[in-house]
Amino acid sequence: MTNFKEADAANVFDKNTPYPERLRQAYYLISQAYGFSMEDEPKLDRSYFSRRKLSN
Predict the structure, then answer these.
(1) pLDDT by residue (tens digit) across 10-45?
(2) Most buried of 23, 31, 41, 52 (most Cβ within 10 A)?
(3) Is the backbone of residue 35 left (phi > 0), alpha (psi -120 to 50) or beta?
(4) Mapping DSSP to helix (H, G, I), strand (E, B) and coil, where does residue 4 land?
(5) pTM
């Protein structure tokens, strides 16, 4: 159990935080919001997308 000051210091998300750590934190928040774990992430359904050549 931590107090508010310790919890606030552990949840740093500002410009001084390295970019890879900010990405890891953001990915964790996204995984919590959408209900999947970071170890068992959902796979991209590639059948949903299509590609074709643009004509001029």
Answers:
(1) 666 677 888 898 888 888 888 889 888 878 877 878
(2) 31
(3) left
(4) helix
(5) 0.52
